[in-house]
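Subject: for your reference before the review

Hello V.,

The reviewers asked for a structural picture of the protein, and I figured it would be easier to keep everything in one thread rather than splitting it across files. Below is the amino acid sequence we used in the manuscript, unchanged from the supplementary table.
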Amino acid sequence: MQRFLKYYWLSLIFISFLFTLFISGTRNCAAHEISSAYRLGPEDVVVISILAGGEEQVTKDMVVGANGHVNVPFIGKIKAAGLTMEALEKAIIRPLEKDYFVAPQVHLHIKEYQSLQFFISGAVKNPGKYALNFIPTIMDLIAKAGGVMPERGNLAYILRGVADRKITDSDIKESISKKEPMKVDLLKLLDEGNMSGNIKLKSGDTVYIPLGTKLNQTTTKVYVQGKVKSPGVLDYQPGMTALSACIMAGGFAKFSAANRAIIIRQTQNGTKTIKLNLDKVISGDLPDLPLKPGDRIHIPESWL
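And here is what came back from the structure prediction:
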């Protein structure tokens, strides 16, 4: 019995040891994956070790300055911002080999990720900027922000190029008018547990979750009016055209004049009216018109 207990406890210790190694290895692999692809930015801290002649010459911390440079031992300032660790290592080795050492070795690792930053705004408990040491998914960032508010909307918008400032509905509208932002269906992700929308973010991304009734529908909808079978409001989808919207609205009603379709579009300079002969689009004699969010399509009644 004592021998059995001895083997039992030894087995538990060994399994625990293997599990610890597995977790540590997983974390190290994830950290290596980030550091190998990561491009340095201001305030990042990099540890450099220089070896030559079989001896360590120096080990020190290097901080990426606001101008993007690091102060490298022996060499001086080198541009680091925008470089991967591999590229920075090569940039350091070249002058070391040329002027200081024979066959030097340079080892770098990132000590602090200061420019690996993400932003979240809107209907979350703690909106703001988050500096992380890993690349999060949208769920990770929502969790960091304390979760969503009960009155949140059903879509999350991922914006690029608007970091470090408060996101407003007008920013969303402008972004959609220029380039369709990434959208995540929060009903599927949060309510149904469908993780297909749990996408990985990029450094500098802003996640915006509007309140359920706050976001102007003109930024996400298309309106079909007049002589169609089911006039109403449609969710805008990338690639949507005038003809496809009419088909989604049930098709043309009796006595419709599809040849005199009118698309009303809001632009920065005011309202623009576009006339389109959808009969010729159907026959292939005219190209269809790609829609934009907020477009209103009117199909008039036939004169006959």
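For the response letter, the relevant points are probably these. The radius of gyration is 29 Å. The chain has a mean pLDDT of 81.

Happy to draft the paragraph if you're swamped.

O.
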